[in-house]
Design goal:
Blueprint lengths: L1 H49 L7 H23 L4 H14 L1 H5 L2 H20 L2 H7 L2 H13 L6 H28 L8 H26 L6 H31 L7 H20 L5 H23 L5 H18 L20 H5 L4 H4 L14
Helix pairs in contact: 1-11, 1-12, 2-10, 2-11, 5-9, 5-10, 6-12, 7-9, 8-13, 12-13
Length: 380
């Protein structure tokens, strides 16, 4: 009997080792995806918004991204239902229309996310990509504060210190940019630094509030991440169309919805639509430390690429400010010490889109599309 158990244990060791190796590779792949998505979206938006020629309507790009997101989630739900169109249709009608009270809960976060997506275009159009990337990390501060106020979450001393360092780092970068602003006016006469700064600050505030509000209303909900994105997308498309009509209605009527769209613009839209959904999937295999490291590394990537693409000037002040932000992001993502008390919760998520906010739910639904982790072994 003992010999049998010993041989069984020996047989299980290679399998466990193999699963751990797969899990390790998935973590590194998740890191790469998070870094690429974080950096490429900002750099690509900045690139297409600074190109000469006809400019596309950012309001139409926001609407198009929402439409693509909804269609993608519907296709995923269809795959989950084994391509049964009737069952999928009945399921969506029940989830969206019959349970209309549950759907209406998505109206507020969807409104905020639509506003946030439009503000991101405004901010990146008026700020250097690296400056935006650093300043946008203020969403961690706003999310933490809203979590404390609305969800009664507690933060560790390390997290409070990291938030202070984060604020200091962003402030230093703004001082550096203020000093360089006059020199850059001649090179960017169509850009307004103040408008960009106000847009990114409001975007950070809306991101923090929407993420915490979303987490609050999802407590006790059993809806999948894909259903939530369909609900958010329906409101997002409607509100986005309203914003398009209000801001660019006459121009769109004259030039067309797809005016100024190039291959690069389509790449930005696809990145915005599918990037968030992709992050929602890979976050399953990325812990807080990995996500914090990815955010920090994406700031470095954005800065380096901005030097080559946009002739961005990095001086000692920017380096110091960005370094503080990178360190603060990493510190904030560190795990809490054991025995932190029942009042302590995991770090509040800083969300940048509806799909990444929705990634707090739907872990079971992702099992059908992703390999099993070592943590999902039988008997664990």
């Amino acid at each position: 009997m003992g010999a049998g158990n010993h041989s069984q244990a020996l047989a299980e060791k290679p399998a466990t080792r193999s699963q751990n190796e797969v899990n390790r590779k998935l973590k590194y792949a998740s890191l790469a995806v998070l870094v690429i998505q974080n950096a490429s979206l900002i750099l690509s938006i900045r690139y297409v918004r600074t190109l000469p020629g006809d400019r596309f309507f950012t309001t139409s790009a926001v609407v198009m991204a929402e439409v693509l997101k909804v269609l993608t989630c519907v296709i995923i739900i269809l795959l989950e239902k084994r391509l049964n169109v009737k069952e999928t249709s009945l399921f969506l009608v029940d989830a969206v229309l019959v349970q209309y009270k549950d759907t209406l809960k998505m109206a507020v976060p969807s409104l905020i996310y639509t506003l946030q997506n439009n503000l991101q275009y405004i901010a990146i159009s008026n700020l250097p990509a690296a400056t935006f990337q650093v300043t946008y990390q203020l969403k961690i501060l706003t999310t933490a504060l809203f979590s404390v106020l609305m969800l009664r979450k507690t933060l560790t001393r390390v997290q409070w210190v990291s938030l202070l360092l984060l604020f200091m780092g962003v402030a230093i970068v703004q001082v550096q940019q203020e000093g360089n602003k006059e020199a850059s006016v001649s090179d960017a006469s169509n850009q307004n630094y103040v408008v960009g700064l106000v847009a990114v600050v409001i975007s950070c505030l809306s991101s923090g509030f929407a993420g915490v509000y979303f987490e609050k209303i999802l407590k006790g909900s059993s809806a999948s991440v894909w259903v939530r994105n369909v609900q958010l997308g329906i409101f997002g498309t409607s509100l986005g169309m309203l914003g398009l009509w209000w801001n660019d209605g006459a121009a769109v009527a004259e030039h067309g919805f797809l005016f100024g769209y190039t291959n690069m613009v389509w790449c930005v839209i696809f990145n915005q639509a599918f990037g968030g959904l992709l992050v929602a999937v890979v976050v399953k295999y990325a812990d807080n430390i990995l996500k914090g490291f990815a955010t920090s590394f994406s700031i470095i990537v954005s800065t380096v690429m901005s030097i080559y693409l946009f002739a961005f000037h990095v001086d000692l002040l920017f380096t110091a400010g960005a370094g503080l932000v990178i360190g603060a992001v990493y510190m904030y993502s560190l795990p809490k010490a054991p025995g932190g008390g029942s009042g302590s919760s995991s770090s509040p998520p800083s969300t940048s889109s509806s799909s990444t906010a929705a990634s707090t739910k739907g872990g079971d639904e992702l099992e059908a599309f992703l390999p099993k982790c070592a943590g999902k072994q039988k008997g664990s």
